[in-house]
Description:
globular
Amino acid sequence: MKEIHLVALIPVYNHWKALHEIAEILHNHKIACIFIDDCSNENTKQHLKSVCENFKMATLVTRKENGGKGAAVMDGLTTANNLGYTHALQIDADAQHDLSAIPVFLQAMQNNPEHLIAGFPVYDSSAPKSRTIARRITNFWVAIETLSMSINDSMCGFRIYPVAKCCNLINNGFWTFRMGFDVEVFVRLHWLGVPFLFLPVNVFYYKDNVSNFRLFRDNLEISKLHTLLFFGMLFRIPMLLRRKICKK
């Protein structure tokens, strides 16, 4: 079995309050990390610089222009692949996800190195109704696009990727580079036959948190994405049905 080398990927766009905390938690777990600065403001850049100076296992990738979360994650995956990492733990920079789940995810990765280990969000009362409803709609369409009910959630940004398989997808091109990336990479990995494993992770919505989600722009992008994924599924129906039959 190929030896596993894990790195954490943290795409950053103007979120700076939790950067030191995230880096310290990863340091305590002896996990190297790659921060991808998606053309943040000067205040965030200074915090990123400080983090990378204080934590020697941290690497900074700086994008020349803002491309969105997906573009930042893809740059991180490419960098991880070039550095020889086999797996990448994606973490949101706003500390929305409970990082105490890391050891459970690491154990699952060790036991299932070919899987995408994905977070299944567990919300508390702080979760906006609009977000939970939007997730249900997206997960409904993902079930259609994959002809599968096995994907419990496709939007949680806390997950461990098999790096090489993701980089093969990047080389073939993506349709979206912003918030829809989390969904698209899920569907495309499913089309490739990558197995998934879902684990619960607590999700918090802090009152002072600044969201980079733009209601009109990102919902329009995700709607277009689902249209493209639906037609992509139509071309793959024979393969998807054959796979379902073989599993029986």
